[in-house]
Amino acid sequence: MIRFYFHPTPNPAKIALFLEEAGMPYEAIPVDTSKGEQHAPSFRAINPNGKVPAIVDTDGPGGREMRVFDSTAILLYLAEKTGTLLGVPEDRPELLSWLLFIASGLGPFSGQAVHFQFAAPEGLEYAVNRYRREAERHYQVLNDHLEGRTYIVGETYTIADISAWGWLDRASRVRKGAEDPLAPFPNLKRLFETVDARPAVSRARAVGKDHPFKRTTDEDTKRALFPSNFPPAA
Question: Which CATH number fits domain 89-197: 3.90.180.10, 2.60.120.620, 3.30.479.10, 1.20.1050.10?
């Protein structure tokens, strides 16, 4: 059994989609990051970095209970465990390259673009421009790569496409104010729509819909989400 710790944000969404695609049995355990539940010692024992997603595999290698954190590590772990969505062995270096491109570039720059456009104080135009333009540059790299391709790696749908989908789903926030945020990147838009049309996506989106996550952004929420912005308590 997989215990899946999540909040309805892009990186956990990737894991929800994989679990639904693979048909793996799992227990979804909400972690309300706006309330600071990710900082609880019980959760830090699973992910010392205090972020979602994280999983605990109660039937890991050798029957051991196994913790895995960071969305890319989880995708690789689950794909290898199930033998699904990895593409062909010859494409393994390419798969790893694009997974890490998303993990170290597309994802973080998208997240920072959202942060500085929606959560940061006004007057930080340099940061807004820097992160949004870098997110768009990563969009363009992937868009160019997808010319003449249906999927990111090889000829089949893989965890690379799932990983990209998680953040492309938030393109309207990354490119705030754009009427059709993926329109300048037609190959990327096609990839997103291809993945988004899969039946497992609707099931993944439904995960946690019945949980009353905190929706207000007050001072406590900011301290929970961005603790390094605040001095430590005396």
Answer: 1.20.1050.10
